[in-house]
Amino acid sequence: MNAYVTLTYYNETSNYTTIETCECGVYGLASPVANAMGVVGIPKNNNYQACEYDTEFTNTKKPWIALIERGNCTFSEKIQIAGRRNADAVVIYNAPETGNQTIQMANFGK
């Protein structure tokens, strides 16, 4: 199932709030299909792929969404790591050098 992503951010330089929406993702095969909203948290210490068990994020104030780069471990591992930090949702994205191919992940396990 395709996912719509809406990104809202405030640009301090232009003093303007930008809202962008795209149909640019898919839900995981075993993932809940639900709306999620929150502030984005990215993995700290340039660990953008969040494959380490003790990964910490820049934001964990509820509600929050983990933004994690694809690669080096399974989708399920990334979701579990963010889940341990109480993320409300997880978005896994392609690194710029890997292109924009969208594949549906198999997220089996809790």
UniProtKB/TrEMBL annotation:
Domain annotation PA: ranges: 47-100
Question: What Gene3D superfamilies does UniProt report for this protein, alphabetically?
Answer: 3.50.30.30
Which positions carry the signal peptide feature in this UniProt record? none
- Name the UniProt record assigns to this protein: E3 ubiquitin-protein ligase RNF149
